[in-house]
Protein backbone atom coordinates (compact mmCIF):
# COMPACT_ATOMS: atom_id res chain seq x y z
CA UNK A 1 0.00 0.00 0.00
CA UNK A 2 1.47 3.37 -1.08
CA UNK A 3 1.73 6.24 1.36
CA UNK A 4 2.67 9.81 0.41
CA UNK A 5 5.40 11.51 2.40
CA UNK A 6 3.68 13.83 4.84
CA UNK A 7 5.01 17.41 4.74
CA UNK A 8 4.32 20.15 7.28
CA UNK A 9 5.74 23.64 7.70
CA UNK A 10 6.62 25.23 11.03
CA UNK A 11 7.11 29.02 11.13
CA UNK A 12 9.20 30.22 14.05
CA UNK A 13 8.88 33.65 15.71
CA UNK A 14 11.30 36.48 14.94
CA UNK A 15 14.56 36.13 16.89
CA UNK A 16 16.56 38.89 18.57
CA UNK A 17 18.95 39.35 15.64
CA UNK A 18 16.03 39.89 13.24
CA UNK A 19 14.26 42.26 15.62
CA UNK A 20 17.49 44.28 16.07
CA UNK A 21 17.78 44.50 12.28
CA UNK A 22 14.15 45.73 12.19
CA UNK A 23 13.06 42.89 9.94
CA UNK A 24 9.34 42.12 9.67
CA UNK A 25 7.04 39.17 8.98
CA UNK A 26 6.95 38.49 5.26
CA UNK A 27 4.57 35.52 5.44
CA UNK A 28 1.06 35.00 6.72
CA UNK A 29 -0.80 31.73 7.35
CA UNK A 30 -4.39 30.87 6.50
CA UNK A 31 -5.94 27.37 6.25
CA UNK A 32 -2.59 25.56 5.99
CA UNK A 33 -1.46 27.90 3.23
CA UNK A 34 1.48 30.32 3.35
CA UNK A 35 1.12 33.68 1.59
CA UNK A 36 3.99 36.04 0.97
CA UNK A 37 3.20 39.60 2.11
CA UNK A 38 4.84 42.98 1.91
CA UNK A 39 5.45 45.44 4.75
CA UNK A 40 1.83 46.62 4.56
CA UNK A 41 0.51 43.05 4.88
CA UNK A 42 -0.62 42.83 1.28
CA UNK A 43 -0.28 39.47 -0.52
CA UNK A 44 2.53 39.34 -3.07
CA UNK A 45 4.12 36.43 -4.91
CA UNK A 46 3.13 32.74 -4.85
CA UNK A 47 1.31 30.80 -2.13
CA UNK A 48 2.10 27.29 -0.82
CA UNK A 49 -0.29 24.72 0.69
CA UNK A 50 0.72 21.69 2.76
CA UNK A 51 -0.74 18.98 5.00
CA UNK A 52 -0.32 21.34 7.92
CA UNK A 53 1.19 24.79 8.44
CA UNK A 54 2.00 25.80 12.03
CA UNK A 55 2.23 29.42 13.08
CA UNK A 56 4.60 31.00 15.59
CA UNK A 57 2.39 30.10 18.58
CA UNK A 58 2.37 26.34 17.92
CA UNK A 59 4.01 24.11 20.52
CA UNK A 60 6.39 21.34 19.47
CA UNK A 61 4.17 18.84 21.29
CA UNK A 62 1.31 19.72 18.91
CA UNK A 63 3.55 19.08 15.90
CA UNK A 64 4.59 15.76 17.44
CA UNK A 65 1.02 14.60 18.00
CA UNK A 66 -0.01 15.51 14.44
CA UNK A 67 3.02 14.32 12.50
CA UNK A 68 5.25 11.93 14.44
CA UNK A 69 3.20 10.02 17.02
CA UNK A 70 1.55 7.62 14.57
CA UNK A 71 4.95 6.81 13.01
CA UNK A 72 6.50 5.97 16.39
CA UNK A 73 3.57 3.77 17.41
CA UNK A 74 3.63 2.03 14.01
CA UNK A 75 7.31 1.22 14.62
CA UNK A 76 6.28 -0.98 17.56
CA UNK A 77 4.27 -3.00 15.03
CA UNK A 78 7.24 -3.47 12.68
CA UNK A 79 6.98 -0.45 10.32
CA UNK A 80 10.02 1.70 9.50
CA UNK A 81 9.73 5.43 10.11
CA UNK A 82 11.71 8.57 9.28
CA UNK A 83 11.29 12.16 10.42
CA UNK A 84 13.26 14.92 8.68
CA UNK A 85 13.85 18.45 9.88
CA UNK A 86 14.66 20.60 6.84
CA UNK A 87 15.23 24.33 6.38
CA UNK A 88 17.74 27.13 6.02
CA UNK A 89 20.34 27.79 8.70
CA UNK A 90 18.90 29.36 11.90
CA UNK A 91 15.32 28.37 10.97
CA UNK A 92 14.81 26.29 14.13
CA UNK A 93 15.43 22.71 12.92
CA UNK A 94 17.63 21.59 15.82
CA UNK A 95 15.35 23.27 18.35
CA UNK A 96 12.39 21.42 16.84
CA UNK A 97 14.15 18.04 16.92
CA UNK A 98 15.98 18.25 20.26
CA UNK A 99 14.20 21.00 22.17
CA UNK A 100 15.51 22.27 25.52
CA UNK A 101 15.50 21.05 29.12
CA UNK A 102 12.20 22.84 29.67
CA UNK A 103 10.62 22.28 26.25
CA UNK A 104 11.31 18.76 24.88
CA UNK A 105 11.70 18.40 21.12
CA UNK A 106 10.51 15.75 18.68
CA UNK A 107 13.17 13.15 19.64
CA UNK A 108 12.61 13.26 23.44
CA UNK A 109 8.84 13.17 22.92
CA UNK A 110 9.22 10.18 20.57
CA UNK A 111 11.41 8.29 23.05
CA UNK A 112 8.93 8.77 25.90
CA UNK A 113 6.01 7.80 23.63
CA UNK A 114 7.87 4.71 22.40
CA UNK A 115 8.48 3.26 25.87
CA UNK A 116 4.94 4.11 27.00
CA UNK A 117 3.58 2.24 23.99
CA UNK A 118 5.83 -0.78 24.65
CA UNK A 119 4.69 -0.85 28.27
CA UNK A 120 1.10 -1.24 27.08
CA UNK A 121 1.87 -4.27 24.86
CA UNK A 122 2.36 -7.06 27.44
CA UNK A 123 1.94 -9.88 24.93
CA UNK A 124 5.21 -9.06 23.11
CA UNK A 125 8.89 -8.99 24.11
CA UNK A 126 10.89 -5.94 22.97
CA UNK A 127 14.55 -5.03 22.50
CA UNK A 128 15.41 -1.37 21.80
CA UNK A 129 18.85 -0.28 20.65
CA UNK A 130 20.24 3.13 19.69
CA UNK A 131 22.91 4.49 17.34
CA UNK A 132 23.89 8.07 16.46
CA UNK A 133 25.98 9.31 13.52
CA UNK A 134 26.77 12.55 11.74
CA UNK A 135 27.78 13.25 8.15
CA UNK A 136 30.56 15.82 8.32
CA UNK A 137 32.27 16.89 5.09
CA UNK A 138 30.87 13.68 3.49
CA UNK A 139 32.54 11.53 6.16
CA UNK A 140 30.56 9.29 8.52
CA UNK A 141 31.30 9.80 12.22
CA UNK A 142 30.09 7.57 15.04
CA UNK A 143 28.93 10.03 17.71
CA UNK A 144 28.76 7.28 20.37
CA UNK A 145 32.33 6.12 19.68
CA UNK A 146 34.56 8.56 17.81
CA UNK A 147 37.24 5.89 17.26
CA UNK A 148 34.84 3.57 15.48
CA UNK A 149 34.75 3.37 11.67
CA UNK A 150 31.22 3.55 10.26
CA UNK A 151 30.40 1.35 7.27
CA UNK A 152 27.45 1.27 4.86
CA UNK A 153 26.38 -2.03 3.34
CA UNK A 154 23.61 -3.00 0.95
CA UNK A 155 21.47 -5.85 2.33
CA UNK A 156 18.35 -7.69 1.17
CA UNK A 157 16.24 -5.38 3.36
CA UNK A 158 17.93 -2.16 2.21
CA UNK A 159 20.96 -0.12 3.20
CA UNK A 160 22.37 -1.02 6.62
CA UNK A 161 24.60 1.18 8.72
CA UNK A 162 27.29 -0.63 10.73
CA UNK A 163 28.02 1.52 13.76
CA UNK A 164 28.00 1.43 17.55
CA UNK A 165 24.66 0.26 18.91
CA UNK A 166 23.60 0.45 22.56
CA UNK A 167 20.81 -1.72 23.96
CA UNK A 168 18.53 0.38 26.19
CA UNK A 169 15.71 -0.46 28.59
CA UNK A 170 14.52 2.99 29.73
CA UNK A 171 13.83 6.34 28.00
CA UNK A 172 16.39 7.95 30.31
CA UNK A 173 19.14 5.73 28.87
CA UNK A 174 18.19 6.70 25.31
CA UNK A 175 18.16 10.42 26.09
CA UNK A 176 21.50 10.13 27.89
CA UNK A 177 23.01 8.59 24.75
CA UNK A 178 21.56 11.40 22.66
CA UNK A 179 23.19 13.97 24.98
CA UNK A 180 26.51 12.13 24.73
CA UNK A 181 26.31 12.18 20.94
CA UNK A 182 25.33 15.87 20.82
CA UNK A 183 28.52 16.77 22.70
CA UNK A 184 30.55 15.16 19.88
CA UNK A 185 28.72 16.94 17.05
CA UNK A 186 30.48 19.54 14.89
CA UNK A 187 29.02 23.00 15.51
CA UNK A 188 30.22 26.55 14.93
CA UNK A 189 29.22 30.17 15.19
CA UNK A 190 28.17 32.12 12.08
CA UNK A 191 26.58 35.50 11.40
CA UNK A 192 23.25 33.72 11.14
CA UNK A 193 23.46 31.47 14.19
CA UNK A 194 25.56 31.39 17.38
CA UNK A 195 25.59 27.58 17.40
CA UNK A 196 25.19 26.37 13.84
CA UNK A 197 25.21 22.66 12.95
CA UNK A 198 28.13 21.95 10.64
CA UNK A 199 26.90 18.47 9.76
CA UNK A 200 23.80 16.35 9.19
CA UNK A 201 22.92 14.04 12.08
CA UNK A 202 20.90 10.80 12.09
CA UNK A 203 19.65 9.43 15.42
CA UNK A 204 18.50 5.83 14.91
CA UNK A 205 16.33 3.63 17.13
CA UNK A 206 16.01 -0.04 16.17
CA UNK A 207 13.03 -1.90 17.64
CA UNK A 208 12.76 -5.70 17.70
CA UNK A 209 9.73 -7.53 19.07
CA UNK A 210 8.29 -11.03 19.17
CA UNK A 211 5.24 -12.74 20.61
CA UNK A 212 5.72 -13.42 24.32
CA UNK A 213 5.48 -17.15 25.09
CA UNK A 214 6.33 -18.11 28.65
CA UNK A 215 9.39 -20.38 28.72
CA UNK A 216 9.88 -20.32 24.94
CA UNK A 217 13.38 -19.60 23.67
CA UNK A 218 12.55 -19.28 19.96
CA UNK A 219 9.68 -18.11 17.76
CA UNK A 220 9.27 -18.26 14.00
CA UNK A 221 9.66 -14.56 13.15
CA UNK A 222 10.58 -11.25 14.77
CA UNK A 223 9.35 -7.75 13.87
CA UNK A 224 12.29 -5.41 13.21
CA UNK A 225 11.75 -1.70 12.54
CA UNK A 226 14.02 1.32 12.26
CA UNK A 227 13.21 4.88 13.34
CA UNK A 228 15.37 7.65 11.80
CA UNK A 229 15.42 11.16 13.25
CA UNK A 230 17.27 13.35 10.75
CA UNK A 231 18.45 16.83 11.70
CA UNK A 232 19.76 18.35 8.47
CA UNK A 233 22.26 21.18 8.44
CA UNK A 234 20.85 24.32 6.83
CA UNK A 235 21.47 25.44 3.27
CA UNK A 236 24.06 28.23 3.53
CA UNK A 237 24.94 31.36 1.59
CA UNK A 238 28.52 32.28 2.50
CA UNK A 239 27.80 35.98 1.96
CA UNK A 240 25.19 35.90 4.73
CA UNK A 241 26.86 33.46 7.13
CA UNK A 242 30.31 35.09 6.80
CA UNK A 243 31.85 31.62 6.46
CA UNK A 244 35.55 31.46 5.50
CA UNK A 245 38.26 28.80 5.61
CA UNK A 246 37.06 25.58 7.25
CA UNK A 247 33.50 26.89 7.68
CA UNK A 248 33.34 27.70 3.98
CA UNK A 249 34.44 24.12 3.19
CA UNK A 250 31.82 22.76 5.61
CA UNK A 251 29.15 24.90 3.98
CA UNK A 252 30.16 23.63 0.53
CA UNK A 253 29.72 19.98 1.60
CA UNK A 254 26.41 20.79 3.31
CA UNK A 255 25.04 22.51 0.22
CA UNK A 256 26.23 19.71 -2.07
CA UNK A 257 24.49 16.97 -0.05
CA UNK A 258 21.30 19.05 0.19
CA UNK A 259 21.41 19.60 -3.57
CA UNK A 260 21.62 15.84 -4.11
CA UNK A 261 18.71 15.38 -1.70
CA UNK A 262 16.71 17.92 -3.69
CA UNK A 263 17.62 16.13 -6.93
CA UNK A 264 16.50 12.78 -5.50
CA UNK A 265 13.18 14.35 -4.45
CA UNK A 266 12.77 15.81 -7.93
CA UNK A 267 13.49 12.46 -9.60
CA UNK A 268 11.13 10.58 -7.29
CA UNK A 269 8.36 13.13 -7.74
CA UNK A 270 8.59 12.83 -11.52
CA UNK A 271 8.98 9.06 -12.02
CA UNK A 272 9.98 6.57 -9.33
CA UNK A 273 10.74 3.91 -11.92
CA UNK A 274 13.71 5.71 -13.44
CA UNK A 275 17.27 5.84 -12.07
CA UNK A 276 17.60 7.85 -8.86
CA UNK A 277 20.94 9.34 -7.78
CA UNK A 278 20.99 7.91 -4.24
CA UNK A 279 24.71 7.13 -4.37
CA UNK A 280 25.76 10.71 -5.09
CA UNK A 281 25.66 11.54 -1.39
CA UNK A 282 26.16 9.66 1.89
CA UNK A 283 22.96 11.25 3.18
CA UNK A 284 20.69 9.99 0.38
CA UNK A 285 22.35 6.59 0.31
CA UNK A 286 21.77 5.99 4.05
CA UNK A 287 18.17 7.23 3.79
CA UNK A 288 17.40 5.47 0.51
CA UNK A 289 14.78 3.27 2.16
CA UNK A 290 13.03 6.35 3.58
CA UNK A 291 12.74 8.05 0.17
CA UNK A 292 10.41 6.14 -2.10
CA UNK A 293 10.99 2.91 -0.14
CA UNK A 294 9.66 0.89 2.77
CA UNK A 295 9.07 3.61 5.35
CA UNK A 296 6.50 5.95 6.82
CA UNK A 297 8.16 9.32 6.28
CA UNK A 298 7.34 12.86 7.43
CA UNK A 299 9.21 16.10 6.80
CA UNK A 300 9.04 19.09 9.11
CA UNK A 301 10.15 22.17 7.16
CA UNK A 302 11.26 24.98 9.45
CA UNK A 303 11.10 28.46 7.92
CA UNK A 304 12.15 31.96 8.91
CA UNK A 305 9.29 34.47 8.70
CA UNK A 306 11.62 37.37 7.91
CA UNK A 307 13.24 35.72 4.86
CA UNK A 308 11.88 35.44 1.33
CA UNK A 309 14.37 33.73 -1.01
CA UNK A 310 15.45 31.07 1.52
CA UNK A 311 11.87 30.39 2.60
CA UNK A 312 10.68 30.06 -1.01
CA UNK A 313 13.54 27.61 -1.65
CA UNK A 314 12.46 25.53 1.39
CA UNK A 315 8.79 25.59 0.35
CA UNK A 316 9.61 24.52 -3.20
CA UNK A 317 11.60 21.60 -1.79
CA UNK A 318 8.65 20.71 0.44
CA UNK A 319 6.26 20.88 -2.53
CA UNK A 320 8.28 18.25 -4.39
CA UNK A 321 8.56 16.05 -1.30
CA UNK A 322 4.81 15.79 -0.70
CA UNK A 323 4.28 14.09 -4.10
CA UNK A 324 6.65 11.19 -3.31
CA UNK A 325 5.04 7.87 -2.51
CA UNK A 326 6.51 5.27 -0.17
CA UNK A 327 5.41 1.67 0.30
CA UNK A 328 5.61 0.97 4.06
CA UNK A 329 5.16 -2.66 5.09
CA UNK A 330 5.54 -4.69 8.25
CA UNK A 331 9.08 -6.06 8.54
CA UNK A 332 9.24 -9.75 9.51
CA UNK A 333 12.70 -11.25 9.93
CA UNK A 334 13.95 -14.78 10.67
CA UNK A 335 14.87 -15.04 14.34
CA UNK A 336 18.43 -16.25 13.70
CA UNK A 337 19.47 -12.82 12.39
CA UNK A 338 17.99 -10.66 15.14
CA UNK A 339 19.45 -9.35 18.35
CA UNK A 340 16.38 -10.36 20.37
CA UNK A 341 17.02 -14.01 19.49
CA UNK A 342 20.73 -13.65 20.20
CA UNK A 343 19.96 -12.15 23.61
CA UNK A 344 17.37 -14.86 24.28
CA UNK A 345 19.91 -17.58 23.53
CA UNK A 346 22.46 -15.84 25.73
CA UNK A 347 19.95 -15.64 28.57
CA UNK A 348 19.14 -19.33 28.11
CA UNK A 349 22.84 -20.21 28.16
CA UNK A 350 23.40 -18.17 31.32
CA UNK A 351 20.40 -19.81 32.98
CA UNK A 352 21.81 -23.26 32.16
CA UNK A 353 25.21 -22.25 33.49
CA UNK A 354 23.60 -20.93 36.66
CA UNK A 355 21.66 -24.17 37.17
CA UNK A 356 24.86 -26.20 36.78
CA UNK A 357 26.61 -24.01 39.34
CA UNK A 358 23.67 -24.35 41.71
CA UNK A 359 23.84 -28.15 41.41
CA UNK A 360 27.58 -28.11 41.99
CA UNK A 361 27.12 -25.86 45.01
CA UNK A 362 24.36 -28.15 46.31
CA UNK A 363 26.59 -31.22 45.91
CA UNK A 364 29.46 -29.35 47.52
CA UNK A 365 27.19 -28.40 50.40
CA UNK A 366 26.17 -32.06 50.86
CA UNK A 367 29.83 -33.13 50.80
CA UNK A 368 30.67 -30.50 53.39
CA UNK A 369 27.80 -31.69 55.59
CA UNK A 370 29.03 -35.32 55.34
CA UNK A 371 32.59 -34.30 56.18
CA UNK A 372 31.40 -32.24 59.13
CA UNK A 373 29.33 -35.21 60.39
CA UNK A 374 32.33 -37.57 60.11
CA UNK A 375 34.53 -35.04 61.86
CA UNK A 376 31.99 -34.71 64.66
CA UNK A 377 31.81 -38.52 65.07
CA UNK A 378 35.59 -38.79 65.24
CA UNK A 379 35.75 -36.01 67.82
CA UNK A 380 33.13 -37.79 69.96
CA UNK A 381 35.08 -41.09 69.81
CA UNK A 382 38.27 -39.33 70.88
CA UNK A 383 36.53 -37.59 73.78
CA UNK A 384 34.84 -40.80 74.92
CA UNK A 385 38.17 -42.60 74.90
CA UNK A 386 39.82 -39.83 76.87
CA UNK A 387 37.06 -39.83 79.46
CA UNK A 388 37.35 -43.58 79.93
CA UNK A 389 41.09 -43.31 80.60
CA UNK A 390 40.44 -40.82 83.39
CA UNK A 391 37.71 -42.94 85.24
CA UNK A 392 38.67 -43.23 89.08
CA UNK A 393 37.40 -46.82 89.45
CA UNK A 394 39.49 -47.94 86.53
CA UNK A 395 42.56 -46.27 88.05
CA UNK A 396 41.94 -47.89 91.52
CA UNK A 397 41.49 -51.36 90.03
CA UNK A 398 44.62 -50.91 88.05
CA UNK A 399 46.57 -50.06 91.21
CA UNK A 400 45.23 -53.10 93.06
CA UNK A 401 46.32 -55.31 90.22
CA UNK A 402 49.80 -53.84 90.43
CA UNK A 403 50.15 -54.11 94.27
CA UNK A 404 48.90 -57.67 94.75
CA UNK A 405 51.86 -59.41 93.09
CA UNK A 406 54.27 -57.23 95.08
CA UNK A 407 52.78 -58.31 98.44
CA UNK A 408 52.81 -61.94 97.42
CA UNK A 409 56.52 -61.76 96.64
CA UNK A 410 57.38 -60.18 99.95
CA UNK A 411 55.30 -62.77 101.87
CA UNK A 412 57.02 -65.61 100.13
CA UNK A 413 60.46 -64.30 100.91
CA UNK A 414 59.65 -63.85 104.59
CA UNK A 415 58.49 -67.45 104.85
CA UNK A 416 61.72 -68.70 103.35
CA UNK A 417 63.82 -66.74 105.89
CA UNK A 418 61.90 -68.26 108.84
CA UNK A 419 62.51 -71.74 107.62
TrEMBL record:
Gene3D superfamilies: Kinesin motor domain. This is (African queen) hypothetical protein. ATP binds at residues 87-94. InterPro entries: Kinesin-like_fam, Kinesin_motor_dom, Kinesin_motor_dom_sf, P-loop_NTPase. Coiled coil: none annotated. Keywords: ATP-binding, Coiled coil, Cytoplasm, Cytoskeleton, Motor protein, Nucleotide-binding. GO terms for biological process: microtubule-based movement; mitotic cell cycle. The lineage of its organism: Eukaryota, Metazoa, Ecdysozoa, Arthropoda, Hexapoda. It is found in: Cytoplasm, Cytoskeleton. The keyword Phosphoprotein does not apply. GO terms for molecular function: ATP binding; microtubule binding; microtubule motor activity. Belongs to the TRAFAC class myosin-kinesin ATPase superfamily. Kinesin family. GO terms for cellular component: microtubule.
